Amino acid sequence: MHTAETHTTMTRELIKTTAGIPATDGAGVEMTRIIGTPDLNMLDPFLLLDSFESDQPQDYIGGFPDHPHRGFETVTYLLEGRMRHKDSAGNEGVIEANGVQWMTAGKGIVHSEMPEQEDGLLMGFQLWVNLPKADKMTEPAYQGFAGTEIPLEQHNNGTLVRVITGRTDEGTVGPVVNNFVRPTYLDIALPAGVVFEQSLDYSDNVFIFVIEGDVKVGEKLQSLGKRRLGILSGGERVAITAGSSDSRFLLVAGQPLNEPVARGGPFVMNTQQEVLQAFDDFRNNRF
Ligand code: FE2
Question: How many angstroms is it from 153 CA to the middle of ligand 1?
């Protein structure tokens, strides 16, 4: 039945916005924490979103020296600059502009993430994606792709879509494979006034984060400004319209796990007991 009301529920609308809070992590890296704050503790399965953007070396030069993770995945997406990654299993590499590293920490990894630059702009995001209870102790794994390996979909209206994971309506598929929460992670550049549409599973949790310009969400055209995150309602279709200037935003979606979450710094498990076990394992070199 195509009443106006059912039509409205098909398109996802803006239900909450947040700008995040200034935070310091690692060895004095200045960033904005957008998910993982008192205002937005999590958006299942997304546990944390940090945005870093600075051309002042003192804000980032300390990097993130050796630290552990267990029970979830870390996704680093760089827009500008270079970061060197090294871990306890001997893996090492440099993430460059437009590149992504999707790391499944699983049962445990100790790694460092250090800027591979002494000055200039460093800009990007780190997203934490939870693992299902059954997969928290999976073997650690990496999926890393340079910017040139990430498909860039171009529309006739000037829209550019970088597809990190998931599938666009035009059929472009991102290189990252994740069967845990079947995420979608798109980086979309939209000319002023142009609309971008994407279908998603109704039950996916979805957020957008505005990198440049400003956008209007859904059919109600509610505004979301630069450096703000917007959570979208349930629905089968996302429609985002660029405002009066060219805009760029991330669109991230995933299936909620609906499982208990116990956090302890770099460990995210289902119970407090499992978090204490992770600290114990780390202290006793069982990672
Ligand atoms: Fe880390």
Answer: 30
